[in-house]
Amino acid sequence: MNRLKPANFRNALDLSDKVQVKTLRKRLKLSPDQFADALRKSGNSISALVKEAAAARPGKPEA
Q: Which domain of life does the UniProt lineage start with (predicted)?
């Protein structure tokens, strides 16, 4: 049978994948609460989360 392949998006965060969420949170150096706030504001777009994390940490240049 032909099955549909799962669509993996490189620029969207899969919130059901705990490893992906943990990895991104650690890469952005955010606490779980800060990460949740950034996620609520920007959605699941990784680039938007990076921008939101940079705005949440004043004085730090964007990576």
A: Bacteria
